[in-house]
User: Fold this.
Amino acid sequence: MLPSGLMSVLLVATFTTVVQGNYFIVSPSVFRPNEDFKVEITYTGSGTASAKATIGIMGGAEVATSTEQTLTNGQGLLVVPISPNVEKGSYKLTVVGKVNGQEAFRNSTEVRLVMENSFVFIQLDKSMYKPLQTVRFRVLSLDQELKPVAQTVRTDISIVDGNNNKLEEWLGVESMAGVIENSYQLSDQPPLGKWKITAKHKFGEDTKEFTVEKYVLPKFEVTAEALPDYIVDGEKEFNIKVTSKYTYGKPVKGKAKFIFGNGEVVKETMLNTGEDGVHTEKIMMRDVSTAKTWNGLKVAVNVTEEPAQVTETSNQLNIPVYSQRVKLEFLPTSSQVYRSGLPVQLRMKVSNLVDKTPAHTGKQLTVTTFLGSNQEKTLTIDSQGMATTDFDIPPSYTNDIHFTARVVGVDGLSESHQVKEYRTKLNTVLSLEVSTTQAIEVGNSFDIAIKSTATLRHVAYMVLARGVIVEGGKLNMPGTGLTHTLTATRPMSPMAKVIVYGVVDNGTMSEIIADSEDIEVSSVFDNQVGLRFSADTRRAGTAVDLTITSAPNSKYYLLAVDKSVLLLGTGNDITQGDVISGFHKLGMGTLLAKTRDSLRCWVM
Assistant:
C-alpha cells in the first residue's frame, strides 16, 4: 500500500507512465542488454487500436523495435527485444498508437541503458587462510533465470590485500559455461588481515572478503543458547544451554566460564555433559542484575578442555528483556496510510514470545480510535492469534489517526498504530488488498480486491518482478469495487509488486490514481538439488559415496572442507540469501521505490 508522501503512481519508481487521451502507457525507465523490454498499454476509447514501441539513440538510429500490436480488449503488452551487443549511450523510447489505422498518439521519453543484467557470484573454499595456503575460488555468471550465461563473457578477476595493494589479476578470462575456477598461492609472509577478491564483467560484478591470519584450527566447537531466548521482568531464573563437542562428534570434558555483560559478572563451573555434549546451567536473575541493561543481557561462554587447557569461546548471546511473555503487534500488512472515504484495514497478532505460537485465543481484543468522536471495536482473537477489522474513514477527515489495541483482562498488553492521510488532487483514491499475507507457492492463485472512492469505467493492473512487467491487464470496474484472481508464476519469485491504476478525469484535468501491494512468491529455484552420503561416519582413509539428485543434464560443482574450517568463519559459500539479495541489487525485487531510477508522468 502507498507509503506516506508518495503521490499517485510515484510508488512505481523505475517506471515511466504516459496518459494521452484514452491511452495509458507504462514501461521501465531502464533497459538491459539481452533482455526483453516490455511496455504495457491500456486503451479506453472506441475504435480499433494498435501500438508499436521502439528504442533508439538520441538523435540517431533505432536499435530495437517491437511488432505493431492490435490491442485486444483495449490492452496490450509490447515486447522490444534488446540485443546483447547494445552499446553505451543516450537512448529514447518512442511509442506510437493508432486508432482505425490513423496515428493518434506519438511521444518519446529518455530511457537509460543499465549494463548489469546478470548475477555474478564468487565461491571460496573457506573464509580464512594461513600463509603459504592456496585460495581456491569459483566465479559463477548466471542469467535472470539462474542459468549459466549463454554467451561468451570476459571476466576480470583481481585480489587485493587489506592495504588495497593489488597482488594478482586475471584479465579477460573467458567461460562459455558461466563458471571460472582458479586459485591463488599465498606467500610465506603475506600481509595479515582482510583481503578481497573481485570478479567483474560488463554485465555484473561481485566482491568477497576473506581473512589471512596465522591461526590454529579449533579442536572443538562451543555454542550457547538461552532457554528461553528472552528474559521477562520479574522472573527469578533462566537457563543457558552450552554445547561443546569435538569436530569428530565426541563431547568435551572440562570447565565453563560464563561472562555476563561486559564482564561485570563471571561464573565458573565444571561441565556436566552426556554424549550429546550438552551442559545446562541455571542462572539466578539476582546474581546477574548488575550486568543487565534496559534492553537485554549479553552472555558469552568460554570452555576450557582438560587436561590440555585449550580454550574456545561460544557465540555471544544478546538476550532481550520484555515486560510480558506475550506480544501484541499490528502486522506490516495493516494500512500505513488512509484514504478519506475508504476503510482502514488493521491486522493484529497475539503470540507467545518463546515459540511464536498463538496466544490468548478466544479472548476479546478492543481497538479504539478517534474519528471526530471516540470509536471502539471489540474483536475475538482467532485460533491463529489473529484479529482483523476495518474502520470507515469519513470523506472529510484529514488528521493523523491513532489506533490502540488491548487484550481484555490482560494488564499491560497493548500496542499502538498510526496512519497518515493520503490525498490526490482530484480527491479520488484507489486501494488494493491481496487475499493473503503468506508466501504464495508457484502455481497457486490469489485474489486482489480493488476499491475506489469514485466510479471508474476501467482499471488496469500489472505485476512487476525482477525489474520487468511479468503480467498485466485491463479490468472493467462495475461500481466502486471488484475482485480479480491471479496465479503466482516462477518469474514473480522471490518478490513481486502488484500495482493497480486508473485515470480520473473531471473535464479539466486528468490524474493517475494507484495503489500497490508486495507479495512473496516461494520456489525461487527451479532445479531442486539434494545431497546424501552413504554413511554418517567413516574411518580416515576409507571411501564414502555421495549421491546427488537434481534435474536431468545438470552440471555439478562440489565443495568439501574439514568441518573445523567452518568454525573459523563463514561467508565463503553462495547461499540462497545471496541469490535473493542479488535480485534486489539489480532492482529485481520488491524495493523498487528505493532505487535511484525515477518515474515520469506524461499527461496530455
Remarks:
- Residues 8-116+591-603 form a domain with the Immunoglobulin-like fold (CATH 2.60.40.1930).
- The longest strand covers residues 102-113.
